[in-house]
Amino acid sequence: MTLVALAQTLGGFLLLFGGGELLLRGAVGLARSFGLSPLLIGLTVVAAATSMPELMVTLTAGLDGLTDVGVGNVVGSNIANILLILGAAAVIHPIQTHPRMVRRDAGAVLIATALFAGFGVTGPLGWVHGAIMLALLGGYLWFSYWNEVAANRDRPAEQADLARLGWAPAGTRLALVAVAAGAGGLVLGSDLLVAGAVAIARAAGISESVIGLTLIALGTSLPELATAVTAARHRHTDLALGNALGSNIFNILLVLGVLVLIAPVRLAAEVLRFDLWVMVGVTVLLIPIMLSGWRISRLEGGLFLALYAAYIGIQFAP
Fold first, then answer.
1. What b/e sequence results for 52-65 when a residue is b if at least 16 CB atoms lie within 10 Å of its CB, and e otherwise?
2. What pLDDT shows up at residue 206?
3. Which of 150-164, 217-231, 301-315 has the highest mean pLDDT?
4. Which residues pair with 168 in a beta bridge?
């Protein structure tokens, strides 16, 4: 049984990574085909595409009655997006920040995180909370679009950043095939990953919420990690930062919003006691680091990686 569970988990990881990558490329190709702006691609296509693994795993877990896995996946993924993904990108090349991104996008991440923490502490999350989250996501996307249009800026740098993503299907048909194949990989991969990880957790006596916070969260963050490393290698770290912030917003407002529409969710005691506050803490920590010299330095990236290693170590400490 353990070997089967390990094979399921490994297969799920590979399908999630491949499916998320293919979905991302197809979505970018579709956006180009329909003439969407780099702004909308970044806020919707890229962030939503790289959040699809979290969405599929969380919904699969929720439909199977494993809401602890789903919530742990979102909390763990948001922690990984800041500490692991931004840390790795900053170590490769310092990440430049600017006031608009801090005010709008980092501020939105902070508000979404505080909202989720407040909902989680006060009781189970139900459909009303889910409706509020989804409405806020729509409001954020509309405000971001309006903000960019009002700025009336040229976007050659953003076009260059988008090109740094590499290959994307040319033509609507090929892009649709890539999106469909990527989504299929995500569905199958999420099924395999949840089944394998839960089996391993039960066999080892580890709680399902811890597995969601670590193994599954890391697996579903691989598309963001791949995007961040690619962007950092080409010194377009603003794309890595924007994708990480956007993914955290989507994870809370979209992924959890849809999950609690399916069934009421009560946060596990261990998540309420520790992990939720780690997520809040690293989100708050990110703001002054972004403001300090308007960059995330290699040293600060190394600090993020060290904090993530310590967090993972605490999860598996006896």
1. bbbbbbbbbbbeee
2. 78
3. 301-315
4. none
Mean predicted confidence (pLDDT) in 109-123: 94
Residue with tokens 């990953």: 193
Residue 183, pLDDT > 70, answer yes
Question: pLDDT tens-digit profile of 126-182?
Answer: 999 999 999 999 999 888 878 766 665 555 555 555 565 567 787 888 888 888 888
pLDDT given for residue 75 in this prediction: 92
Three-state SS for the chain is CHHHHHHHHHHHHHHHHHHHHHHHHHHHHHHHHCCCCHHHHHHHHHHHHHHHHHHHHHHHHHHCCCHHHHHHHHHHHHHHHHHHHHHHHHHHCCEECCHHHHHHHHHHHHHHHHHHHHHHHHCCECHHHHHHHHHHHHHHHHHHHHHHHHHCCCCHHHHHHHHCCCCCCCCHHHHHHHHHHHHHHHHHHHHHHHHHHHHHHHHHCCCHHHHHHHHHHHHHCHHHHHHHHHHHHCCCHHHHHHHHHHHHHHHHHHHHHHHHHHCCECCCHHHHHHHHHHHHHHHHHHHHHHHHHHEECHHHHHHHHHHHHHHHHHHCCC
Q: How many Å apart are CA 247 and CA 54, to the nearest integer?
A: 10
Dig out the tokens for 73 from the structure.
Answer: 């996946």
Residues 6 or more apart whose Cβ sits within 8 Å of residue 254:
48, 51, 55, 133, 134, 137
- Name all domains of the chain by residue range, CATH numbers in brackets: 2-315 (1.20.1420.30)
Q: Please, which residues bridge with residue 135 across strands?
A: none
Look at residues 318, 313, 304, 317 and name the one whose alpha carbon lies nearest to residue 79. Answer: 304
Assess contact for 265 and 71: CB atoms under 8 A.
yes
Count CB-CB contacts under 10 A for residue 144: 20
Each residue of 73-82: pLDDT tens digit? 899 989 999 9
Percent of the residues in the chain that have a pLDDT greater than 90, as a whole number: 30
